[in-house]
Structure formats: C-alpha cells, structure tokens
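Incident log, support desk, overnight shift.

02:14 A customer reports that sequence design results differ from what the structure should imply. Their input is reproduced verbatim below. On-call engineer (initials T.W.) acknowledged and began investigating.
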C-alpha cells in the first residue's frame, strides 16, 4: 500500500532528497528500499518483567508487527513503561500507579508523533497502561487498534491475586495457618496474564472493546494461546484497513460509544476504576462525560455477570462460555447499546454482533435480563456534605445498601491496615483513610490491602471503608472511594474526627457526616494544607497539575 493518503505522517519523514539522513538511520534498524514506500505502523508494547500482566507482551508485539507487515505496512516496535499495582499495593510505590497512566499516554504520543507513524497498535496488560494507551490513541487521532494482553489462567483451587490479599487477613484472624498462607502465595499466580476476576484490567479490556477500539473478542482471551496471538496479527492488519478507509479514533469515540462502554462495565459488575479512566479517556477525546452520566445510565442497566470479586467466577470461565460478546448482543437486542457506533473492525457495533450466538443453555455465569444479580448499577455515585463533588461506591447488594457507623480516621493506608490486622477495627466502624487523593498522596493509591484484610477478618458485612483514594478492582465490601473534594484540597473528609457518625445510603445516593453544619465549617476553618512533594519530582509535578477525581484525575 503506497497511497500517499495512507502515508500522511511518514511521508515527510522519509520521502525526498532532504530526508536522506532519516533513511540512512532507518536502514540501520532494518528498513529496505521497499519499506520507505509503505505506511509505517508503530507497535506500542508495554512489555516488562515487572509483572505477570505484561511479561509476555514482547511476543504479542512481534505478532502484531507480523500482521501489519503481511498487510503491506512497515511495523516498528517500541516500548513504554508499566507499574505493577499488585506488587506495589500497600507500599509508597503505589502512589506511582495512576501517575504512570499519564506517563504512558505522554510517551506513546511522543514516539508516534515524533517518529511520524501513520497508525499504531497499542498492547496493554495491566490496569493503568490500558487507559494510558487509549488516551494516547484519542490524543493522536491516527488509525489505531488496542490489543488486550489477556487474562491469567486460574491458580490452584481457582485462586488469584485477591485470594492472596484475603488470605493475609485470614492469617491475622487465625483461620489461615502459616503453611496455608505459604501455599496460597506459591500457587495463586501460575503465569502470564492480568488478574483473573472482573478487576480493573478485565473491566477496562471489556470497556475498550465496547468503545470500539479493540477488535471483536479481544477482551475475552487468555494471555497464553493461539487466540491471543491471532488477535495481535489481526490488529496489525486492521490498522492498514483503517488507514485505507480513513477511520480515526475520533470517528469511533463518540458520546454514544462511551455510553456503550459504561453499560457493558455495569452489566459485567466491573471495577470502580472504570469511572476514573472513562472520564480520563473522554477528556482526551474531547467528549463531554460526567459522574452524573454513570448514575443516569446505571438506573436502567442491570448487573448480569456473577464474576469475582463479589461474585463466583473468573474471566477464564466467562471465556469458556463465549466471553462478553453474547452479553453485548443481549444488551443490544434490549435497546441498551447503541448499535450504530463505528468500531475498528470498520463495521458498526450492531454489524459486529449480528451473528453472535447466545450463551450455552444451563450456564449460570451470566444471567438473563429478567433475572439480574442487581436490577441497577453496582457503581453508585454518592454526594452529600462529606463528598460535595461526588464519590464512587461499589455496592453489589450483598453487603446491603445502607450503613451507619462510627468513624475511625487514618492518615495513611499503612496505619489503617495495621489497625485492621491487629483487631482494632470492629463491627460498626467506618474506616476513613484520607490524604490519599490525586493531590494528597500524590497519586491516589489503591486500597486492596485494607479491603482484603477486612474481608479476611470476616468484617466485610459489618465494617465500611471510605477514602479519597481509590480501590483495586479486586476490592469488595461496603467501600466508597474517590471522595471529592479530597482532604489535601480542604474537602470535608479532612474534618472528620474519630467517633463522628457517618451514613452511607446507596439508595438515596448520599454520604453524610452527621455533625452540625456550623461544627463542620469551624473544623474546616482551622484546616491547613499539608506540605507537598519535592518540586521537580514526578510526584511533585503530578500533585501540582492533577485535577479532582470527579474529573478523571487528568492533568491540566
């Protein structure tokens, strides 16, 4: 394919006498005479030995490159970073996780634009590199396809990473022995792939497919196997088709596409992080999206999939019965999806789903619309005097829909975790962990360690946890995150004191600090902002530039 329209960005880099130095350098990395007339396709790989989620992506990048080359392009592989949430969880390093989303988006944008790639494939496998890839796609607006690195296979006894965190709580409770804890540690993570439930990685993979930026079924494949390799080859070839047709992310990322992604996320019982990332992606795409849109859509979309963490099944078991496509077909037929949205297949979502068969009879992983797990969304946007700009709760219904309790206030996750493991948190407590928002941490770390410890100690139905930080997709229980304004910005959560009564009402969508308004005003008048991070560091810059969680924690 040598059509100049397909070489809009690479042609100024390699064509003509003045570009002789560029061609000379490219010959050294493998370009031939013929390659200079082909569209250049970047392959953004998030490979690293840092985490099982990404340890195999170098091989997937080579498959995507092979697909692009076979379709008439010239593929060029490059890398960006990743940070392991599961490994950094509960440590100061977790502050860098959400920050990495912006670094990844920036780095992909810089390489693709700097090198003049005509289009690209982005391959992500862990929580933040996935939305980071998609934010770069939206910013660059060049033909592009996202590939999910795939889910991990189950560990022994259907274990996964959340099993390990909850086993730590069980060990503190005395129900898990040293030997049992060691066995869980050694058997829960069997190899490559992203965490196995409907946690953030599988949630975002499904949402990105529903957005239209992945090829059909990319989100529902295991990391290891022929299906994922073929998905990568097809993605490489698809970029050439998108170039030929002139289809760009801006043609795909419409308001209706975001509504589709939110709908699928809810039906799957997905992670609260999807709220943060959808807002961030929409901001990059210039599409208006607000917290209230999650409430509006959630009022009519039920939770249908019985998936971990609050449900019973793993992503690999959903894959065995057909993945998310039959669920999407059900939602489409019920008028809950916009079938006219364009996708990277070059067809509309409705056309992509036209021939999808239903789930096999007798399966109980995905319920029918007339027998939902929950008739409306589990992602509940709360507002009130404790969160005037909003907060995000994950309420499956199993833990109840209303909680009133006494505040136990902590200024760090580590202090809260120590109290939980030591038995200092009891039924009726509302654990408040603050100064962990986008500015306050900085970086808005996830809280899988304390939520896992609460579940492991048997307190999941009798203790609530609220924070201006956020939760892992593996967290469950009565948890509320993204409280905004955050403590570091002088939000009301900064004024909470031990013993204050807090009410969380998911039905009324309210979160209330039960103190006199004059007392709240008095406390806030005496509040002083904490010292920030050292200027010039990545955390210092992030804390200075980042927006409120209710806006997606984007940089401005």
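02:41 Re-run completed on a clean worker. Output:
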């Amino acid at each position: 394919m040598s059509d100049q329209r397909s070489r809009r960005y690479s042609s100024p880099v390699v064509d003509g006498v003045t570009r002789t130095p560029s061609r000379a350098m490219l010959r050294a990395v493998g370009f031939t005479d013929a390659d200079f007339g082909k569209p250049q396709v970047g392959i953004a790989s998030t490979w690293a030995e840092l985490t099982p989620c990404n340890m195999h992506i170098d091989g997937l990048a080579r498959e995507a490159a092979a697909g692009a080359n076979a379709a008439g392009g010239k593929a060029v592989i490059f890398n960006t970073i990743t940070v392991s949430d599961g490994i950094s969880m509960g440590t100061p390093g977790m502050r860098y996780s959400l920050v990495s989303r912006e670094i990844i988006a920036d780095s992909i944008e810089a390489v693709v634009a700097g090198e003049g790639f005509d289009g690209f494939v982005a391959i992500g496998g862990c929580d933040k590199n996935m939305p980071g890839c998609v934010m770069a796609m939206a910013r660059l607006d060049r033909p592009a396809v996202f590939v999910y690195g795939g889910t991990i296979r189950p560990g022994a006894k259907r274990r996964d990473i959340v099993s390990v965190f909850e086993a730590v709580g069980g060990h503190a409770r005395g129900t898990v022995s040293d030997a049992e804890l060691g066995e869980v540690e050694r058997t829960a993570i069997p190899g490559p792939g992203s965490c196995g439930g409907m946690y953030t990685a599988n949630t975002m993979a499904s949402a990105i497919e529903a957005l239209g930026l992945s090829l059909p079924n990319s989100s529902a494949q295991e990391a290891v196997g022929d299906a994922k390799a073929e998905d990568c080859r097809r993605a490489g070839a698809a970029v050439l088709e998108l170039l030929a047709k002139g289809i760009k992310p801006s043609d795909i990322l419409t308001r209706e596409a975001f509504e589709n992604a939110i709908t699928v996320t809810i039906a799957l019982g997905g992670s609260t992080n999807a709220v943060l990332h959808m807002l961030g992606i929409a901001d990059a795409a210039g599409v208006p999206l607000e917290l209230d849109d999650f409430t509006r859509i959630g009022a009519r979309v039920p939770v249908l999939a019985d998936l971990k963490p609050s449900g019973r099944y793993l992503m690999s078991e959903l894959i065995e019965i057909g993945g998310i496509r039959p669920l999407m077909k059900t939602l489409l037929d019920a008028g809950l999806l916009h079938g006219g949205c364009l996708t990277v297949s070059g067809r509309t979502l409705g056309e992509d789903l036209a021939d999808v068969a239903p789930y096999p009879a007798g399966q109980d992983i995905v319920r029918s619309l007339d027998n939902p797990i929950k008739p409306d969304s589990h992602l509940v946007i709360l507002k009130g005097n404790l969160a005037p700009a909003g907060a995000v709760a994950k309420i499956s219904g199993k833990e109840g829909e209303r909680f009133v309790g006494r505040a136990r206030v902590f200024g760090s996750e580590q202090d809260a975790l120590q109290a939980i493991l030591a038995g200092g948190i009891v039924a009726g407590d509302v654990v408040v962990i603050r100064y962990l928002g986008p500015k306050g941490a900085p970086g808005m770390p996830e809280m899988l360690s304390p939520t896992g410890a609460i579940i492991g100690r048997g307190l999941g139905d009798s203790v609530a946890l609220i924070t201006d930080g956020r939760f892992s997709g593996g967290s469950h229980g009565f948890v509320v995150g993204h409280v905004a304004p955050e403590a570091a910005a002088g939000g009301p959560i900064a004024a909470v004191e031990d013993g204050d009564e807090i009410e969380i009402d998911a039905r009324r969508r309210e979160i209330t600090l039960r103190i006199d308004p004059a007392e709240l005003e008095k406390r806030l008048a005496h509040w002083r902002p904490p010292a920030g991070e050292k200027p010039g560091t990545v955390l210092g810059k992030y804390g200075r530039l980042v927006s409120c969680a209710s806006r997606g924690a984007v940089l401005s």
